[in-house]
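Tokens in:
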């Protein structure tokens, strides 16, 4: 019986120490070995496509005295399926809802998208 109680305390202590170490060093471990690395080279390898602006709304932020706009767009790539994306950007006044723009996106991560020019 004494051996069983001792083993329970050892196992509980080991589990507790493991949780404590995970809490202390988990953030450090995740920063050293991220699950997904963002490529800095994607704009050069990005895919150009046409996008239709579905909705525009102001975010309330100003960048260099210009309002930041949230755009909801439907991107229509030459190959593959259309997809919807929301981006926050400072746009020229020529951009209107229903307008068509050229964009460049990362084919591995559709959330990485740049406006190329206004059509």
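Residues out:
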């Amino acid at each position: 019986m004494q051996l069983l109680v001792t083993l329970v305390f050892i196992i509980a202590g080991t589990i507790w120490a493991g949780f404590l170490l995970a809490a202390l060093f988990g953030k450090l471990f995740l920063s050293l070995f991220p699950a997904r690395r963002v490529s800095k080279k994607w704009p050069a390898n990005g895919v150009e496509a046409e996008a239709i602006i579905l909705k525009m709304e102001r975010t309330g932020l100003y960048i260099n005295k210009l309002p930041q706009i949230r755009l909801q767009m439907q991107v229509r790539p030459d190959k593959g399926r259309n997809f919807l994306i929301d981006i926050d950007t400072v746009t020229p006044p020529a951009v209107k809802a229903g307008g068509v723009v050229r964009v460049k996106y990362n084919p591995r991560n559709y959330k990485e998208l740049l406006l190329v020019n206004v059509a």
